[in-house]
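Reopening this one. Same input as before:
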Amino acid sequence: MKVFVSFDEQHDRDLYELFVKQSLRAGSSFEVVRDRSTATRTRGWSDHPRADIRSADEVVFICGEHTNESVRMSVELDITREEKKPYLLVWGRRDRMCTKPDGALPGDGMYSWTRDILESQMATTLRGATPRVIPESYKRRPDRAKPASAPPRSSPAAPDSSDDQPLRKHEHS
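Same output, byte for byte:
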C-alpha cells in the first residue's frame, strides 16, 4: 500500500524519518510515496502535494505538539479530502499532548503509533474507503423479478365493480 505522509516540517521531521524507516523494515505492508527526509530546508514541502496525494492509496498525518499550527498539514488535509483519499491521524509523541491538523473533524480519531496498530488501522481505513463490488450474480435483475401476487378475489356476495358494466338507476315504485 502506498502512503503519503503529512507532518509538521518545523517540529516533527524526526517522526517522519522514523516513519520512513518503519516502512523499509522487512514485513512492512506500506511504502512512503515520496521520501521527503532528504528535501532541502528551503524547499522542504513537495512542489506537487496534490500529485503525491493522488498517487497514494492512503494519507497518514503524523500529529505532534504543533500540528494544529501547521498551514502545510491543513492544506494537505484539504487536498486529501478533495481527492477523496482515506486518511489516518497518528499520535506522534507518546509523552506529549499532540494536536490534530487545523480542519480535522471532531470524529477523526488519533491512533497510537505502534507497528501493529498503525498497520491494522491503515488496512481498516483503506478497506472502509473502498467501494464494495457486488458480483452480477447477486444483483437484482428486473427479468428475474418475482411476479407480483394476484390481488385477493372479492367475495361472491360483493357487487361486481368492474368498469365494463353500465350503472343501473334504481327506480322506486
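So the earlier flakiness isn't reproducible anymore. For the record, The beta strands are 2-6, 31-32, 58-63, 87-91, 110-112.
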